[in-house]
TrEMBL record:
Pfam families: TonB_C. Residues 158-221 form the TonB C-terminal domain. The keyword Signal applies. Keywords: Signal. Residues 1-19 form the signal peptide. This is Energy transducer TonB. The keyword Transport does not apply. It comes from Flammeovirga kamogawensis.
Amino acid sequence: MKLTFYYIVLSLFSLQSFAQYSPEETSKDYIDYAYELLEKKEFDKALVKTDEIIALLPRSTAEIQYIRALSHHHLGFNTLALEEVNTMFQFSMSNELKMNGEELKMLLEDEINSDLSKDNSEETEYVMAEVSATYPGGMGEFFHWFHSSYTMKNTTTNGNTGKVFVEFIVNKYGKISNVSILKGVDKEVDKTVSDLLVKSPKWMVAQQNGKPVEQKIVLPFTIEY
């Protein structure tokens, strides 16, 4: 009987411990952590954290919209970031946050207008574009093409295996160019990889603001040589 009473008291204490924090109080910790992720330049993780906060409340706030706008701005999605800044002004906020939001809005509008007014001959290489460059059928198909072509070009190996890290550009016409070996295994092997990549079938081009753009891509290739 005493043991049963003990478990009842313990259960009530546990429930009270969990209930003492409101969703708003818990979300404050999440928001602080999201700001830490911004400082670490982990912008994708900051966006995921804001999704968790919205699910917890469940609603957005001016501060959440501000964090999302900053994250998308640093990822190169200025149009989306501007929409989120405009949305933040629908919520109540401190004067300091309002000032920060207005400054960010001015910056985004200036950068968007600057991008639109750029000469078409002035190309920008994106690491992350609104629509990323993709190989028809997906990356699995691309690696299948590469390894099949590499095997046909090199019918004999010495039994060695290594990983070649390559950086290249998918230009706005869908072709691979500017191939650079970041970390190779052998000069001849590295050259074979570079020569092969520029012969890749056409990719689906990256897009920014609805226009085709160049995108920089880094990939590892496991090679037998």
